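Annotated sample (chain length 283).
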Amino acid sequence: MKFALCNEVLQPLPFAQQCRWAADLGYDGLEVAPFTLADDPMSITDEQAAGFRKVAEDHGLRIFGLHWLLVAPAGLSIVSEDARLRRRTMDVMTRLVELCVALGGSYLVHGSPKQRSVPGGNTREQAWERARECLQAAGEAAARCGVTYCLEPLSPRETDLFNTVEEAARMVDEIGLPALRTMIDCSAAGQAEAEPVQALMERWMPRGVIGHVQVNDPNRRGPGQGAMEFGPILQVMLRMEEAGNFPGIVGVEPFDYVPDGPGCAAHSLGYLRGVLQGLQTHG
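Output written by the structure step:
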């Protein structure tokens, strides 16, 4: 199992310093939010992406994947009534898939709650159909590039579309592309799902629809900084990784940094490594 730190935790440090911090703390790599690399990620060339990749590798890290995909450029939406805006959004999604490859990544996490929430005056069914068009384009791009595009279920406090793994998996099944999957964010699942996260993993991972996991507490702090117990969760992930039902990369994605970004990153990894060591020692 490998741990990736979501790099916005270390903002506003420059990327090279983010890499140095993450490496010194013991992370295996980074999960990158594209808006941290450029105000407009669409301006990043393949050559520049390769440069970021080399900086990470020089620090002994990999860029495992991308997340927070549609924060920039501003105004994107996969559910807008405006077909031209949806086409622009699909173009951005496709380019981000290409950038993921250039950065050395293997997956993308599509959260971006504001850019998928049902527009006023529209029905959920209308938003669903528009989202399907955009997600199919992203899945096709991911298939061409050999990466996985993951639709992230988020809690109702963040968005009103794709709130559970079951709902996201239904969209994945409708589109029917192996490169398009869903994923589990522990904080969102702890808020929105009816069953514990480990039971959710037991149910969905063997079906081959879970492409990634992000660990965080429902209080939006890092693992070990809230009430969620990660021992049972990591235990299931270890078993599913061994069975080939989980890729084995875990994104550490707190939102509330206590005491600060570096301190939260250090505490999260120390807690997770300690839990893992206990599981592996005691079977």
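Annotation: The chain is about 45% helix and 15% strand.
Annotation: The longest helix spans residues 124-145.
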